[in-house]
Amino acid sequence: MEAITKHGWLTWLNDRLGLDPLIELAREKEVPIHRHTIWYYFGGMTLFLFIVQVTTGALLLLYYRPSAETAFESVQFIMTEVSFGWLVRSIHSWSANLMIAMLFVHMFSVYLLKAYRPPRELTWVTGVLLFFIVLAFGFSGYLLPWNKLAFFATKVGTEIAGVVPVIGHFLLRFLRGGDEVTGGTLTRFFGFHVAILPALATFILTVHVWLVQRHGMSVPPSVERQTQNVKTMKFFPNFLLRDAMGWLIALGALAALAALFPWELGEKADPFAPAPAGIKPEWYFLFMFQTLRLLPSHILFIEGEVLGVLVFGLGAVFWLLVPFLDKESIRGQRERVFTFIGVVILLYIAAMTIVGYLS
Amino acid sequence: MNTNRLQHYRSWRGRRSQAKLAVILMFVFSLISIWSFSDGLTASGGSDPGVLSPTDPALVLARPSEPMTPAVEKQSGEKAKKDTCVQCHREMGDELAAPVTAMQHDIHYQRGLSCADCHGGDPTEEDMDRAMDPRRGFVGRPTPQDIPRFCGKCHSNAEFMKKYNPRLRVDQEAEYYTSIHGKRLVQGDRKVATCISCHGYHGIRAVSDPQAPVYPTNVARTCGRCHANAGYMRSYSIPHDQLEKWQASVHAEALLKKNDLSAPTCNDCHGNHGAVPPGVTSVANVCGACHTRQAELFRKSPHKPAFDEMGLGECLVCHGNHEIHHPSDEMLGVGDQATCVACHSEGEPAYQAAQTMRQMIDQMVRELNQAEALVDRAARAGMEVSRAKFELNDAHDKLINARVVIHTFSVDELQKVVTPGIDTAKKAHRMGVEALNELQFRRKGLAASLVVIFLAVIGLYLKIRQIERPGA
Asked: Which 3 state secondary structure label does DSSP give A268?
């Protein structure tokens, strides 16, 4: 309170907004210190990169024109004519990839450290929903420059959505805005990318961050068993300053990547051109794509691709419901099966991604 | 049945001596026919005794018969299905079965025609003598002189051919008799090519069949069977290196390596059924059929009347004929490989013009290469240079156009296309320079940003240490 009274403007704001509970939270929030503390930084890093995405995305909107006739040219204009346009677009693309990478690390660290245990089930559920939303961001954003690779990757990606039993055809038409990938698909993806997904993400992210503040950082069971009194540090300013160091390093890395490896534009999409050889999706979809490629045409009486899509769908539901399925962790017992499943999934994703790149 | 046929065959073999006698008599008869044929032509053909008119009464009389309705069509019922030619020849084996074996791939056989439709006779007869009775239309193996008419009895008949392929031309036979081959055949030369020399016999494939000897990629080898055979061509006193030369040409490369079926092979310049060496006056028409703009510019150039006066063969004076290489800029100017100096000497205005034109093209190439190297460097560094590449493509098109405009042999005309080309190349060059400058700016900007970020990180680190100092 003393700090607030020192600053007149803060008092003025506090009187009107009632910031006391927030200030109290920041003052009291503590972060446990143990051998796994490093993993706490990845959530903040993902959030930082999300903010970079929002900022650069908003800047790109100033010049981007979402139609089959103008999209490619407008991105070309951004890359060549707009002052620092190349920087904004390259950072947006690189940051998207880094954000998804950080999200993978954050999600698997939370999973393996069992941070989804009660009372943090909903934190996990909102986090997984955010993961799905981010994948949708990646899929929709990839098409927006309307280049050849993006066009055909979207065609293949939406075809896969089309094999979902019962609702597949509807899903394909819903995503494409028709039977084929056209300018209509581009406009639709643009709508998803800049309106629907950001709205959903903002809402769920708010809930997610609020839940993190409400329940505080989870201490892994292994640490809890070994140490009675876990040491802590203040979130503000100690942890936040460390976070800021990480963010600055990430910013430096983004600047270097953008300056040294500007994101390529490729060739403009031509719906009548033959598909280029070796179309691959972005790296974060590659494990699923590769799995579908390797499946035989029929497994028992089901088409291999349909079965693959079904298994991934069930896998997503399983992943979402993990906190409710892992009964032993709920009871506070030592649990190995879910750890094993997590490691297997991680190894599977890594192996399939590598195979996908090499093949 | 089989035993009967074999006995029949053996008895036929036993009568081979009689057959030999018959063949000798036929040969003598053929010689007399040829003589009388030529005589008839001379009498009715007009000014050129070597040219055979397809409507000539002598030819009409000499035709073996009217086109035959396919054997399987003209018969009916059980008898209609019989084809004793095929049945017997298949069983005879060896060279007598070869026609039947080859016929499986034959376009005629595939369209329902069989032996008797060309050779006559009665394929429904079990008895060989009756089946191959000349009174039943059997004509046996035609002599080389007879072959064009033998094939032409159907292929020259528009009414008949319409039933099989309405798009097919029916003037092959007429054309053939206008060719060197046809003319020499009429004069009694049995070595010249006839229909079967190129299309084969019994196993005749459609022209569109890639295995056909007359499919575009096979034509040169087919012609080369005779024309690249030194011994075979000796009596004609013509070169026999055309195939070898053509195979080293830009046209062969396009046709055989790039599988570009529009690239010319022998028949595209010489014709096929009416094959003749293109004369001096028609060479430009032959080349100009594809290279239209060059031919048009050449016709308007001062070279055209000069070449006509000297009797020179236009395009081939500089480009050659069979061994036409990809044209290079070295052909222009006054250097060692320049074709201009073959006619023009130092001191002549044309000599000076050739030198100037070469300098103009060289300057254009130099500007374009420099711009390309610069833009490529910027592209390798990750810069977005699609607009510069667009300009480069435009400059490249203008260079190609300038190389075509050379055929005007006019410095002024060339200048009109070279100047905009050089301007475009310079524009691309400027864009490349700007891209590299931008690259430098980005790198410097990155270095400055990283220094600021590094200092900020150090500041944060020191701040953390300060607030976490024991007793702080």
From this structure: strand
| Angstroms from B259 CA to nearest CA on chain A | 20
Largest CA distance in chain B: 133
Pick A93 or B17 by higher pLDDT: A93
For the full predicted model, state whether its pTM sits above 0.90.
Answer: no
For residues A322 and A116, the answer to whether their CB atoms sit within 8 Å is yes
Whose CA is closest to A39, among A218, A204, A211, A210? A218
The model's pLDDT over A123-170, given as tens digits with 9 standing for 90+, comes to 999 999 999 999 999 999 999 999 999 999 999 999 999 999 899 999
Architecture of the CATH domain B349-464: Up-down Bundle (1.20)
Using CA coordinates, name the residue in chain A closest to B450: A252
**What are the residue boundaries of the structural domains of chain A, listed by start?**
34-279
Q: Percentage of chain B surpassing pLDDT 90?
A: 53
A79 touches chain B (CB under 8 A): yes
Q: What integer pLDDT is reported at residue B154 of this predicted model?
A: 92
| All CATH 1.20.140 domain ranges in chain B, comma separated | 349-464
Asked if the C-beta of A33 comes within 8 angstroms of chain B's C-beta atoms, the answer is no
Distance, in angstroms, between B470 CA and closest chain A CA? Answer: 13
pLDDT in tens, A170-225: 999 999 999 999 999 999 999 999 999 999 999 999 999 999 999 999 999 888 88
The shortest CB-CB distance from B467 to any of A87, A238, A262 is to A238
Q: Which of B440, B453, B462 to mutate to probe the A interface, most A CBs <10 Å? A: B453
| Cβ contacts of A79 on chain B, cutoff 8 Å | 384
> Does the beta carbon of A313 lie under 8 angstroms from any beta carbon of chain B?
no
Out of A76, A238, A245, the one facing B461 most closely (by C-beta) is A245
What three-state secondary structure class fits A322?
helix
Picking from A251, A259, A265, the nearest residue to B442 by CB comes out as A259
User: What ipTM, to 2 d.p.?
Assistant: 0.86
What amino acid occupies position B344?
H
Would you say residue B129 has pLDDT above 90? no
Give CATH superfamily name and number for A34-279. Cytochrome Bc1 Complex; Chain C (1.20.810.10)
Q: Which residues pair with A232 in a beta bridge?
A: A32
What six digits make up the tokens of A124?
């996990």
**SS3 annotation, chain B:** CHHHHHHHHHHHHHCHHHHHHHHHHHHHHHHHHHHHHHHHHHHHCCCCCCCCCCCCHHHHHHCCCCCCCCHHHHCCHHHHCCCHHHHHHHHHCHHHHHHHHHHCCCHHHHCCCCHHHHHCCCCCCCCHHHHCCHHHCCCCCCCHHHHHHHHHHHHCCHHHHHCCCCCCCCCHHHHHCCCHHHHHHHCCCCCCCCHHHHHCCCCCCCCCCCCCCCCHHHHHHHHHHHHCCHHHHHHHCCCCCHHHHHHCCHHHHHHHHCCCCCCCCHHHHHCCCCCCCCCCCCHHHHHHCCCHHHHHHHHHCCHHHHHHHHCCCCHHHHHCCCCCCCCCHHHCCCCCCCCHHHCCCCCCHHHHHHHHHHHHHHHHHHHHHHHHHHHHHHHHCCCCCHHHHHHHHHHHHHHHHHHHHHHHCCHHHHHHHHHHHHHHHHHHHHHHHHHHHHHHHHHHHHHHHHHHHHHHHHHHHHHHHHHCCCCC
DSSP designation for A318: H
C-alpha radius of gyration, chain A, whole number: 23
Interface touch A248/B460, C-beta < 8 Å: yes
